[in-house]
Amino acid sequence: xxxxxxxxxxxxxxxxxxxxxxxxxxxxxxxxxxxxxxxxxxxxxxxxxxxxxxxxxxxxxxxxxxxxxxxxxxxxxxxxxxxxxxxxxxxxxxxxxxxxxxxxxxxxxxxxxxxxxxxxxxxxxxxxxxxxxxxxxxxxxxxxxxxxxxxxxxxxxxxxxxxxxxxxxxxxxxxxxxxxxxxxxxxxxxxxxxxxxxxxxxxxxxxxxxxxxxxxxxxxxxxxxxxxxxxxxxxxxxxxxxxxxxxxxxxxx
Length: 253
Description:
2 domains, globular, 9 helices
């Protein structure tokens, strides 16, 4: 464990993450099993998280869920990271292209977070929920964000099992990914050609701040045939929207 971290804080945050990411209700017993720690070790951090309303313990079932403070913090994060202007432009783009629009930010390592989504009124559209975390190496949003990172900040691509295969088109070779990121940086856009999900294609461009730093991405996602057929128009509309947002000079996600 790093000398610059506090074990008790790390443990509390591990508990919080497990509760938040679980699809089923968790108990102290299930947390104990997941963390490979005795239940007595978990009482103190759970009590602290409960005291400050980061988690909630059901009085009847004793299951643990996220508390209201997490919702408040999430709203605060969204307000600071998604300007209403970006939301409005994403909404316009959805109306023009009739496809799903994502605003994403880079977390760290191989993680990209979808912080805003506009979904068209189509019966077959299934979009990731707000706050969904995806792999960066196999999504257009993720690749455009990786392309603008310093190379020493993406050394993790050489770590075992980091570039996991999602489809037969996923790039899993680190050197090939680096070459792809170089091309993306030069052309100014990224394409996910069924690399994350078969049948789906996505195109993304960067959103930059005044210093020219890539701070987010805006992307168009939809069925492969529809995206490829209209890719010229999609790229043009994305570049126009991103250029407008960048010109405002007041965004710092």
